Amino acid sequence: xxxxxxxxxxxxxxxxxxxxxxxxxxxxxxxxxxxxxxxxxxxxxxxxxxxxxxxxxxxxxxxxxxxxxxxxxxxxxxxxxxxxxxxxxxxxxxxxxxxxxxxxxxxxxxxxxxxxxxxxxxxxxxxxxxxxxxxxxxxxxxxxxxxxxxxxxxxxxxxxxxxxxxxxxxxxxxxxxxxxxxxxxxxxxxxxxxxxxxxxxxxxx
Length: 205
Ligand SMILES: [Zn+2]
Fold this sequence. Notes:
Layout: H1 4-14, H2 25-36, H3 43-46, H4 64-78, H5 87-107, H6 141-146, H7 149-180
Residues 1, 38-39, 58, 62, 103, 107 line the site of zinc ion.
């Protein structure tokens, strides 16, 4: 696995793409935690469940069906004030699902361990992508800090943090440029016979 920090970074970064009304620190933190959470399955080792078991590491908790169900739970909570099946609400669900599923996809780019059971419980097959540039992080925190921690963080910075960070920065800048150019028409001088109108509540997000 990449380090928990990297999974959380990616989850938080994905919140940038949520519909505007849902964006914010809360969504970022929730998606960061949600993206890192699947690795709690390492507890399976403690109770004697082997790595290759469907409930083992990179098994069910890393699968797409699990991400889908987890996303529904989070969506029900985070989007409870939104009208269900509105476009913004659907967009929120998509972003939550992508954040939850991002964990398995990042793991499938790592260079060691077993593959990811993307389709558990429907298929127990484990998958890796053909290209695996990310170093696998040790499962124990002690080993992470004592052995190859610096090397792994440098590797993750190159393959995850910098590209993902760039995408987020460019997205925010592009958004700023697009929305930053719109005040021209609302700021035009009011015509003498123009009544003040209540601000519209058109579609947002
Ligand atoms: Zn993992």
